[in-house]
Amino acid sequence: MRMDMKQMVKQAQQFQQRLTEMQGELAGKQVSASVGGGMVSATVNGRHELVSLTIDKEVVDPSDPQMLQDLVVSAVNEAMRKAQTMIEAEMAKITGGIKIPGMF
Fold it and tell me: What is this structure's pTM?
């Protein structure tokens, strides 16, 4: 069975519309990650934007700023990984599980 060009264009437009809708939905979704026993928490949205960073005052040690820096980096990176997993799961819903390079 051969698909005509009009049908292909229509399907591409529908895919683009679903993709645009999904991107909007992902912007409103958030994931969080905590490190250091909950001393530092980061929250990012589905656009990989950091929306919240919480630092427990007990972890702020002026004599050891490196520890705090490491905890912040770890929390943000873990939240970003969770966001990527969420994005991939949402993409799988509209692509049927097919990974499209460069989409996210």
Answer: 0.76
pLDDT in tens, 67-76: 999 999 999 9
Please name the residues in contact with 84: beta carbons below 8 A apart, sequence gap of 6 or more: 48, 104
* Residue-wise DSSP of 30-85: EEEEEETTTTEEEEEETTS-EEEEEE-GGG--TT-HHHHHHHHHHHHHHHHHHHHH
- How many residues are given for the chain? 104
**36 Cα distance to chain centroid:** 22
Which two structure tokens, joined as six digits, stand for 51?
A: 């929306």
Q: Are the beta carbons of 33 and 73 closer than 8 angstroms?
A: no
